[in-house]
């Protein structure tokens, strides 16, 4: 049993809205970009490159185990069970889904809000993600934050840092994180405009193969009859190589993309690079391989670079906020070992070297390789000094 979060209303003494608060913008359906199109969460995720980048980062982080670590008296760290082992279970979310939602909110809106869910004894049993557009951040006279949440039933509830955790991205004003959706509005708007232009090009039939112009005047019935005859005798797979005979004088002009159209296609490809640059994702991971390649670089090295320069800043931001919810000498930590593990041959050589150096026992090495323990394998080996040449 858990108690639904419903704290009593406590109006703040004064209210100062953050200058980066996008709530008013979303109230009117998004903001127009320089390209003249409205940019919102739905339209941005409709861009294939944005959807791929968000899915890649959010999915990669969601696949990492989230552990609770406690520091022992001897200075070593030990994993202990905590609410963070499955923080979304009490609200119907799997651990993967919970982490994916939190990261997606940060990537798109620059903020993640988590309502504390408590059990019957008042203990923290879970964290419920709230859509950032439904949360307004206010500052009281004493400097503390107040969060006004719009609920689905049309009511609003007020929360404080005691019952809501706020994870911001680059909060330059110290109140609310900047929204990537707003900062990159013009770039996203250009991409949306390009997608709509492509849809109109296909929808309006501008991609025809040829234009046929008669040298004499035709009635509507004659034109329709000749068009049907041409399609029947000259178009399609079955008529490849056939000879079409039409009892009229026609001039046929092949239709092809102009140089301007080709540059338009190049512009769309450039937008993929811009989106990859914005999210910090290598373009080849977004299927843009014309100028980039992954050949010559191992998968482990690519994953290590992605983890170090892209994923780790996001996970550090999350785990430091979540650590505030834990007990003394405890901290939250994303476990990267499975994500950046080397290939099997390299891993075996590393394990052998660690066993020979006395860093781990043979059974600890066998456990990494999912092998059963052996008798006497729980004893560390004594490192042997290097054998030199004797005179």
Structure characterization notes:
There is one protein chain. The chain is of the alpha+beta class. The chain has three domains: 1-205 and 276-341, no CATH class; 206-275, no CATH class; 342-384, no CATH class. The protein is 37% helix and 17% strand. The protein has eleven helices and 14 strands. The chain has helices spanning 23-27, 41-45, 48-62, 95-109, 180-183, 185-203, 220-234, 259-279, 299-323, 344-356, 362-368; strands spanning 2-3, 31-32, 38-39, 66-71, 77-80, 111-119, 124-130, 135-139, 145-150, 156-159, 164-168, 210-214, 250-254, 330-334. The strands form five sheets. Strands 1, 6, 7 and 11 form a four-stranded antiparallel sheet that branches. A three-stranded antiparallel sheet has the order 5-4-14. A hairpin with a 5-residue loop joins strand 9 (145-150) and strand 10 (156-159). Helix 3 packs across helix 4 (95-109) and helix 3 (48-62) packs parallel to helix 8 (259-279). The chain is flat, with a radius of gyration of 30 Å. It starts with a strand and ends in a 23-residue tail after the last helix. Residues 7-29 have low confidence and may be disordered.
């Amino acid at each position: 049993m858990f108690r639904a979060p419903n704290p009593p209303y406590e109006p703040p003494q004064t209210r100062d809205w953050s200058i980066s608060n996008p709530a008013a913008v979303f109230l009117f359906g998004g903001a127009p970009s320089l390209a003249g199109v409205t940019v919102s969460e739905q339209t941005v995720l409709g861009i294939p490159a944005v959807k791929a980048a968000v899915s890649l980062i959010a999915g990669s982080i969601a696949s990492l185990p989230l552990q609770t670590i406690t520091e022992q008296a001897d200075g070593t760290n030990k994993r202990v069970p905590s609410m963070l082992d499955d923080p979304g279970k009490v609200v119907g979310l799997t651990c993967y889904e919970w982490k994916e939602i939190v990261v997606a909110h940060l990537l798109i809106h620059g903020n993640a809000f988590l309502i504390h869910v408590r059990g019957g004894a008042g203990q923290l049993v879970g964290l419920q993600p709230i859509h950032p557009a439904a949360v307004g951040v206010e500052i009281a006279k004493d400097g503390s934050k107040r969060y006004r949440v719009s609920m689905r039933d049309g009511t609003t509830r007020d929360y404080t840092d005691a019952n809501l955790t706020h994870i911001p991205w680059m909060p330059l004003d110290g109140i609310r994180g900047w929204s990537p959706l707003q900062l990159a509005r013009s770039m996203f708007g250009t991409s949306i405009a390009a997608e709509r232009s492509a849809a109109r090009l296909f929808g309006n039939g501008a991609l025809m193969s040829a234009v046929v112009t008669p040298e004499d005047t035709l009635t509507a019935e004659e034109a329709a009859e000749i068009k049907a005859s041409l399609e029947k005798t000259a178009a399609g797979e079955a008529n490849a190589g056939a000879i079409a005979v039409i009892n009229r004088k026609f001039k046929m002009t092949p239709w092809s993309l102009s140089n301007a159209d080709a540059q338009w296609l190049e512009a769309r490809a450039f937008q993929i690079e811009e989106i990859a640059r914005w999210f910090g994702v290598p373009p080849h991971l977004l299927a843009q391989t014309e100028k980039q390649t992954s050949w010559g670089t191992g998968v482990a090295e690519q994953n290590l670079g992605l983890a170090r320069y892209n994923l780790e800043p996001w996970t550090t931001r999350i785990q430091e906020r979540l650590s505030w919810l834990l007990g003394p000498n405890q901290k939250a930590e994303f476990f990267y070992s499975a994500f950046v593990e080397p290939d099997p041959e390299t891993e075996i050589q590393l394990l052998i070297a660690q066993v020979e150096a006395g860093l781990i026992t043979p059974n600890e090495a066998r456990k990494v390789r999912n092998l059963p323990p052996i008798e006497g394998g729980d004893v560390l080996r004594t490192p042997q000094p290097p054998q030199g040449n004797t005179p």
